[in-house]
């Protein structure tokens, strides 16, 4: 079902976002600017995964079989 595949992509995307943001914040250290950079980095990395996952897997159209 499509909703299950979408939820899987969504959960993986959120996990990627959190992991990247946490890692960048750990590397950069404390501070408002560093936290904003970390959050932005997580978003930038997770958006392509979410888009491509939805496009290529979650909402993939079934191929039509043409019988002539």
From TrEMBL:
Q: Which residues cross the membrane?
A: 7-28, 40-59
**Keyword terms, alphabetized:** Membrane, Transmembrane, Transmembrane helix
Its recorded name reads GtrA-like protein domain-containing protein
């Amino acid at each position: 079902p499509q909703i299950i595949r979408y939820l899987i992509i969504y959960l993986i995307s959120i996990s990627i976002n959190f992991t990247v943001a946490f890692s960048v914040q750990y590397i950069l250290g404390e501070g408002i600017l560093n936290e904003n950079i970390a959050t932005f980095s997580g978003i930038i990395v997770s958006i392509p995964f979410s888009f491509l996952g939805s496009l290529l897997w979650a909402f993939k159209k079934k191929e039509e079989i043409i019988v002539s």
